Amino acid sequence: MTLNWLSIVRLGLVQMALGAVVVLTTSTLNRLMVVELALPAILPGTLVALHYGIQITRPNWGFLSDAGGHRTRWIIGGMAALALGAYGAAHGVVLFETSFAAGLTLSILAYALIGVGVGASGTSLLALLATATAPRRRAAAATITWLMMIAGIAITAGTVGAFLDPYGPQLLLKIVGVVCTGAVVVTTLAVWGIERGVKAAPRESSDTRFIEGLREVWAEPAARNFTIFVFLSMTAYFMQELILEPYAGLVFGFTPGQSTSLSGAQNGGVFLGMLTVGIAATGLRIGSLRHWVVAGCLGSAGSLTVITLLGQMGLSGALVGAVVGLGFFNGMFAVAAIGSMMALAGEGRGAREGTRMGLWGAAQAIAAGFGGLVGAAAVDVMRVVLGQDAPAFGAVFVAEAALFVLAALMAMRVIEHRQGRNAAIVPGE
Fold first, then answer.
1. pLDDT for residue 152
2. Annotation: CATH topology of 9-197+210-419
């Protein structure tokens, strides 16, 4: 027995909870450190890079769930670790106001725990989807679960933004505590009993060592080339993650609540982009995965250029629309890439779905940490060199746009090679 549509939606609730917690650390807490506390952008950039860097262990989490099963316990346990880490990170922000050393120490521990939690929960969830979903439903399942994750990010960012003004440390802790507790409860209720009700693909033999399983997956040309594409495209995707809200605050004078709501608007655009591709490619059979990925990358590059120009001209009224456009094209690119990922996870040697998803998850995490850190560091350097905020941020946005163009060129080779000229997302039944 494979996952039915209700079970897929239930697992999507876990993705929604993951997105809701992570957006607090990469968006709200980041902005508070840079703008309200006047800390250099490289600090939150390094902390976020730490949590992504720890996710290099994702292949091991995937291998463990392949070998021993019991993905449910990894999903729930990982979510609990993520929630604890996020709440600790919020306390770290509060501590920065009185003691830099104490705030930094707690933040390092908290962001490390966030990395462990996301790696364990997220990888095991994707592995369960890949092994227990019928092949004809995998792409549609990927679209549904990612739409729900983006919805969780957008709803959380918008809601937190509305409640966070006027900002206060105790209010921040209260809001983060409510979100984290809710995420653990939702995850437990959503995933409980699902694994017992499905018959997944055979598990990897417990006699096989992790490094052997990873080496076999890396030896597959399709898996290796797709890993490289994921790293490049995700570097471009995440370069603006840590600097967009500080950009809105420093260049356009947005308040903490307004800039957090801006993040919600961006992820609302991501949701619309994903939904558009899901309807067009799955329902109407318009275009291929390759076409949607390329269009999304090029559209993202164009949106970043517009955001840069708005800063030069001081047109704050158009910023939200431009950010929504960036999110729309980001979502278009992401869901098509995810569809390819889900399809490829079930190909090659059997019982390696978790290891493959872990490998791509690690590539995405490393790229996210690298991209976010480079973006934050580059802004700090350019602000010193240029002496003005708008041109400094704009230079980084333009560099990110160039990376998106390179990712589009690579997608034309990698996804074309795998799926052919007329490839499209396979519709669910």
1. 87
2. Growth Hormone; Chain: A; (1.20.1250)
